[in-house]
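Researcher: Let's try something more involved. This one mixes different molecule types, so please make sure each is placed in the same coordinate frame as the others.
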Amino acid sequence: MTPRIVEVRRNLLRKNDLAAAALRDRFRTAGVFVVSLVSSPGAGKTSFLERALTLMRPTRRVAALVGDLATECDADRLRRSGAPVQQISTGTVCHLDADMVERAIDGWPLAELDYLFIENVGNLVCPASYDLGEHLRVVLLSVTEGEDKPLKYPTIFNTADIAVVTKIDLANAVGFDHPELLGNIARVRPGMPVIEVSARTGTGFRSWMRFLEHRAAEPLERHVV
Amino acid sequence: MHELSIALSLVDAVCDELPRLGANVSVRSVRVRIGPASGVSPDALTFAFDVAAAESPIAGARLEVEAGHDRALELTALEVVDDATDC
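Model: All components are placed in one shared frame. Result:
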């Protein structure tokens, strides 16, 4: 028999996209603003989040999910803030996806939360393809990683809403070039907001809080990844 | 491995199509379109596909990759053969 061609036309990420859209609806209904964090390993996601949770806990109802291949280390650190934290251990998977998030929040009273933070696995490549249902995606990069990072990883910068430059207290020690980094970010994603922080000293966290609260006050929709 | 997750989803997607293709049909090749910003390497996906398909109903099917735009990551078509069992 001669072979025949059958058209299919199916987006391979459709299953995750649908799951993420359902999550986004659920979050909106529950009134919880969801923020995800992506970066390379060691850029300071957990330190940033630990500081943010500690600052916010007195006046806001916050919780976090954190993804890693192994260990509960990050969840333990984040729990020091007093916020409820769930670790997602992915085993060998290099990114979080919507199904993992959905399983992790099972049984959580979302309507009793103001903010949910999702710390992705340290990886600047794979998370770009996986919508988690979040309202805001933050890409973090530290002053030690090189100002050309945005040029090397355009997709993740294009799928994020704001860039947070971490470890700014080390900027002088490593000869960090602010204008070069800002220029590179603008080349890859014109108009992207950039905030510089130090989780150690607290620099930049007021700006971060202002940005976050401003965004959370807007209608709970997000640009499609 | 990242492409292995994608390949497993791809094999699942193809197997989802099998019922509507009719009985006694085998899949000779699987055609996908991959864009440069999809985060997927065609070579790595081809390798991963062979692994993912090996224990599935479509073992032996070949992956054919076509270049797409932007973040395209699409299963576009299947080449199938109707296994003649009579006539």
